[in-house]
Amino acid sequence: MEYIKKDYSDIQSVGKDGITFTNGDKIVFAACIGKRYNSAICIAERNIVSSPPYFEFFTNYKPVRIIFNNRGLFSKYINNKNFLKLQMQINNAGYSSYDLS
Q: Phi/psi at 8 (nearest 5 deg)?
């Protein structure tokens, strides 16, 4: 399946309604519900053991995949930390993601 790829570093903000990127693009959490799983709160799939780790959101046109591809010293630690931070922000907004790990 094709998807739109975004880097985690492109995120400007994460709020209760969704994710805003530095270029103005947005992922609206409520619009992602019910696209792939029969759930009232599941908006994405996630895989922390993939290379690179990612979240894939069930957006209307094409799924949007946010990848964690920081490189260099401590990159695995930083990518995992950012991954878990995004997961907590999604959960705190009242939504969930399906774990593929």
A: -55, -35
